[in-house]
Design a protein that fits this description.
elongated, single chain
């Protein structure tokens, strides 16, 4: 139920990659600038969409992703700790805003 509840919130579900150091090294063979941005995502432990990765040279964008990560963590905890039969949207969802470039 928790998974279907999160998937219903389409505005917070999108494909993202959790990059590893091996991924960054592979990217570096083709694009050093993109690899530098990917390294920031790896260092911060952020899952990113490759379209968003282009903006990871901006500190305010990285900060927005960190804030989003914390809010999503709170939303997950609220959904998973909700009693059976309660299907209302989590209160933390009101704080959520998709990071934009």
């Amino acid at each position: 139920m928790a998974v279907s509840k999160l998937l219903e919130m389409q505005h917070i579900t999108q494909y993202r990659a959790v990059l590893s150091q091996e991924d960054v090294d592979a990217i570096a063979q083709y694009d050093a600038d993109l690899a530098r941005k990917a390294q920031i995502a790896v260092d911060e432990g952020l899952a990113v969409n490759f379209q968003d990765l282009e903006y990871f040279d901006r500190p305010e964008f990285v900060d927005a992703f960190k804030k989003e990560k914390e809010i999503l963590k709170n939303i997950r905890e609220e959904v998973l700790s909700a009693p059976k039969g309660q299907y209302s949207k989590p209160k933390s969802l009101d704080e959520y805003q998709l990071p934009r470039a």
